[in-house]
Design a protein that fits this description.
heterodimer; A: mainly alpha; 70% helix; disordered N terminus; B: three-stranded antiparallel β-sheet
Chain lengths: 296, 272
């Protein structure tokens, strides 16, 4: 970090650069600098949202339009694969569940993953000419993904209420699962951002990983669907929690739609996965970031 | 903080007034590159299979030592690939030195490339904020200086248009304007003077002199010997990563020109 005036409050203006040992930078000054430079990350994220649809006719309406279209596409997919042998109510529940999971996954989580992964490699000019805590780059993308996700929440509630589904009080607990999703997404963003510096091909793999993960998570299916099969095979339910998104997205959807508070195991699984991912991602990124300028 | 290298912060009590603005001690920087331009997973696997490592060391700086006092404007000259930009980045704390030690006393602002952090889809106004924050300014400072920055860039109504509609001269004028309004203690500039048309160049040169006076310390990398003579009171000549000479601009430039075996005629003064 160079000695900009922002750092002055907490360090002197003397900076010494020496060959770095591998490992972490000193954490306290690092996080202070990160905090001081937050307005820059915020502005970067805001700018990228504003710039996104600047050329289109609908402009920012796309933030609402694209998740709606997305939900329709996947709903058509489910209807074709599963057939129509369901009551109207069951279909509505399926559609609302799909929306809850799909918006959170596709707009928020996959946004973190995709944009976060390319944040460091794509920020070449910034990285080579400015000195700042590099962690700002993936975290700005997480913020971007979150703010693109927010309007879809409004869309979701409108869909849910207009199909006559009740609004449960348990909805107020749901942000806990959103927080887990955010932490997990941020962790993944940091890990993939750092890895992509070394292996550029990760960007290509990521497209398929994102799609695969979508099918493996309780979005197109409900969390309790596979449990029967597992019981028949004699496999313990815990297997499902190998996928962190099973508990996180499952809990999110069941709170929003059925007002059911998930059992303890889901909380433990979701919270521990997200904390582990976040801490591991941050440590991995920070231990590598001093090399980025040389590697780009 | 230490985005690049191990940073030790020294308390103000340790500072003595005799400290130079920048002290570079025996600094070497080596880039480790592979032969392929972009490292890929596939080539890594293939190399792993053959059991060889295609690593290629580029010695950008070799045992460079010098000191620059506060209030000095120092010009850095040398042919392409002499390590001038690498040196700038090391002083800014972007590239870690492979060996040696760099001590910087003061706030550093870099003008190594124009328009860092800019988003071409957004208006000039929004990019002033973006570029300013990227360079480490606060929102308050930006609000206070916004008018000055916009006025200096002379963009008129274009300031509210997306930057992709700008001509390249307008683009660099705005970028330059943001950069010179940072008011740093130590300013690092890499070839940024040649922006805009003749009229803007003059204005830019004037502003650079002001900045050099206010900032105290300025590092200027340039191929234009004329601007070095005009703006700097010291000069450092780098050749293939080593310091050839440090001293009075006239003398260093004369030696450099002699070294290149070209006379100091009008042509070489303008662009070398």
């Amino acid at each position: 970090m160079n000695a900009t005036r922002l750092d002055e409050e907490f360090t002197s203006s003397v900076h010494v650069y020496e060959p770095h040992r591998n490992g972490l930078p000193r954490l306290r000054p690092y996080f202070r600098a990160l905090w001081q430079r937050k307005p820059f990350a915020t502005e970067m994220s805001r700018a990228s949202i504003r710039a996104d649809n600047v050329n289109t006719f609908f402009g920012q309406i796309w933030l609402v339009l694209s998740p709606l279209l997305l939900a329709c596409v996947y709903f058509a997919l489910i209807m074709i694969i599963r057939g129509r042998g369901n009551t109207y109510d069951a279909n509505v529940e399926r559609f609302v569940h799909l929306c809850a999971g799909l918006f959170a996954y596709h707009i928020f989580f996959a946004g973190c993953l995709r944009q976060g992964a390319s944040s460091v490699v794509g920020g070449g000019k910034l990285l080579l000419n400015m000195s700042f805590p590099r962690l700002l780059l993936p975290l700005a993308e997480v913020r971007t993904a979150f703010f693109k996700f927010l309007p879809t929440l409004v869309v979701f509630f409108i869909i849910m209420l207009s199909f006559g589904r009740p609004l449960h009080w348990q909805v107020i607990i749901a942000p806990a699962f959103l927080l887990m999703l955010g932490l997990f997404g941020a962790g993944m963003a940091m890990i993939f951002a750092a890895m992509q510096v070394y292996f550029r091909d990760i960007g290509n793999f990521l497209t398929y990983l994102v799609r695969m993960w979508l099918y493996m998570s309780p979005i197109l299916w409900t969390p309790d669907e596979p449990l029967g099969t597992l019981r028949e095979l004699g496999i313990h339910e815990w297997v499902m929690h190998i996928n962190p998104l099973y508990s996180i997205l499952g809990g999110w959807s069941s709170l929003l739609i059925n007002g059911e508070i998930p059992e303890g195991a889901w909380w433990v699984a979701g919270a521990s996965w997200s904390l582990v991912a976040f801490v591991a991602g941050a440590l991995f990124f920070m231990s590598r970031e001093r090399e980025f300028a040389v590697r780009l | 903080m230490p985005s690049v290298s191990e940073v030790k912060t020294v308390t103000n009590a340790d500072m003595t007034t005799s400290d130079p603005a920048v002290r570079v001690e025996n600094v070497s920087i080596t880039y480790r590159t592979t032969f392929e331009k972009v490292p890929t997973f596939k080539s890594a696997l293939r190399r792993f299979g053959r059991g060889k490592r295609e690593i290629h060391n580029v010695q950008a700086l070799t045992d460079v030592s010098f000191e620059v006092d506060h209030g000095t404007s120092i010009g850095i000259i040398g042919s392409n690939g002499a390590g001038k930009s690498t040196l700038m980045r090391a002083i800014a704390g972007i590239l870690p030195p492979s060996e040696g030690r760099i001590e910087v006393h003061g706030r550093v602002s870099t003008l190594l490339a124009l328009g860092v952090g800019f988003n071409r889809k957004l208006s000039g106004r929004e990019n002033v904020v973006l570029g300013g924050l990227a360079a480490g300014m606060t929102h308050d400072e930006l609000n206070a200086r916004y008018d000055e920055i916009a006025e200096f860039a002379e963009l008129g109504e274009f300031i509210d248009m997306p930057m992709k509609t700008y001509s390249s001269g307008m683009y660099s004028r705005l970028a330059f304007s943001v950069a010179v309004h940072l008011n740093p203690d130590i300013l690092l500039i890499d070839e940024a003077l040649s922006t805009g048309d003749a009229k803007f160049k003059q204005k830019a040169a004037r502003r650079m002199r002001e900045v050099a006076e206010n900032a105290g310390t300025m590092f200027l990398v340039s191929h234009s010997m004329r601007s070095i003579k005009k703006l700097c009171n010291q000069c450092l000549w780098l050749h293939k990563g080593q310091v050839m000479m440090q001293g009075d601009p006239e003398e260093v430039i004369a030696a450099y020109s002699k070294f290149l075996e070209v006379g100091e005629d009008a042509f070489t003064l303008e662009d070398m």
